């Protein structure tokens, strides 16, 4: 499903990943565990193609990121640590925008049913700016329930969630795995999830590597 | 192409559901125009002779000030990142944002230009000419001001550098737009129209390339 091959990654003038490889098969849940600054988010950003590594490649079902460039949403659903919701819109409007971006058409009843999972149905018309951090996180995670992709990638999904919501997230991930899906997520604490494999990420080194910070201009 | 259509729909929905972009542009525009009118005095001859330079100077500054609104929120809440990992190319994102911004100023100026031309004693046929000039010059101004907003994300809100980099590119547009003889449009040589269109054709590909690089840099 996902194969990460010998990734070397430098960020902020430091090497944070060296020869990192990972294989994620069907029906597996992999946790990337590491302290703050260990490079968990950078690794996920590299996997989804936001950051280009110095070397190495990422394959989704045997295809490189360049090959699936415009079809990425079919291969994976990524929930980054940022909330990715517009403050001036309600929960329902934000979900609607997200569904349109994915070309998913659902009726109000179907949407309401999915919102009920994280208890968001009653507050679906509230503006996102009026929600607490935990509620925003739940809206963000609700996007998983609408996705059609088999691979879910989440960055620190349990941050800011209450105990009940963590259990709900665990159960929807378990259900997803039962349906031939797989989950890759990061955390700095060890959650009580049915994890197949745990990968420990450590701070690699603090040695400064290079001075160039405006990489893309070189590609002109 | 379908991806671009989806993105444009998203941008237009954001623009017209939350009208804050249109309101902030219009209020700044009107405020400065009224201040000019009051400071120059009631002499319509003087007011009508300086109408076009004032109009373009205000359009320029309104665009620079409001362009950040089109980028900033998406950048802070992670939507910028989300659009990229969903498979929308940086070029598509830049063009969709430009289209949305262009729509917002067209919508606002459809009311603002006739209103202000009345205030400055501009006759109907001259107002139509002003519209032509506005339609030909505003796409270039929009592209440049979006580049300016993307630069401000890159260079950590250092407005001084932003102005030094982008401001010189605005000057030719303002010169050719404001030097057109709007009262003698039928008889005068209308090469300014061609020059303004030419500027747009030059600016479009260059700004797409720079916009793409700047959007990619936001992930670093």
Question: Which SSEs are present, and which pair or pack?
Answer:
The complex is a heterodimer of chains A (about 220) and B (about 220).
Chain A: E1 2-11, E2 14-24, E3 29-34, H1 40-47, E4 55-60, E5 63-64, H2 72-75, E6 76-79, H3 91-101, H4 108-117, H5 133-146, E7 151-154, H6 163-178, E8 182-187, E9 197-201
Parallel strand pairs in A: 3-8, 3-9, 6-7, 7-8
Antiparallel strand pairs in A: 1-2, 1-4, 4-5
Chain B: H1 2-17, H2 20-40, H3 44-49, H4 51-76, H5 79-85, H6 90-119, H7 124-154, H8 159-178, H9 191-217
Helix pairs in contact in B: 1-6, 2-4, 2-6, 4-6, 4-7, 4-8, 6-7, 6-9, 7-8, 7-9
Describe the structure in brief.
Chain A is α/β, with parallel strands linked by helices and 220 residues long.
Protein architecture, described:
The complex is a heterodimer of chains A (220) and B (220). Chain A has 220 residues and is of the alpha/beta class. Chain A is built from six helices and nine strands. Chain A has one domain: P-loop containing nucleotide triphosphate hydrolases (Rossmann fold), CATH 3.40.50. Chain A has a five-stranded parallel β-sheet with strand order 6-7-8-3-9, sandwiched between helices. In chain A, α4 crosses α5. With 220 residues, chain B is mainly alpha-helical. Chain B has one domain. Helix content of chain B is 84%, strand content 0%. In chain B, α2 packs parallel to α6, α4 packs antiparallel against α8 and α6 packs antiparallel against α7. The longest helix of chain B has 31 residues. The chains are: A alpha/beta (220), B mainly alpha (220). The interface between A and B is medium-sized, with 35 and 31 residues.
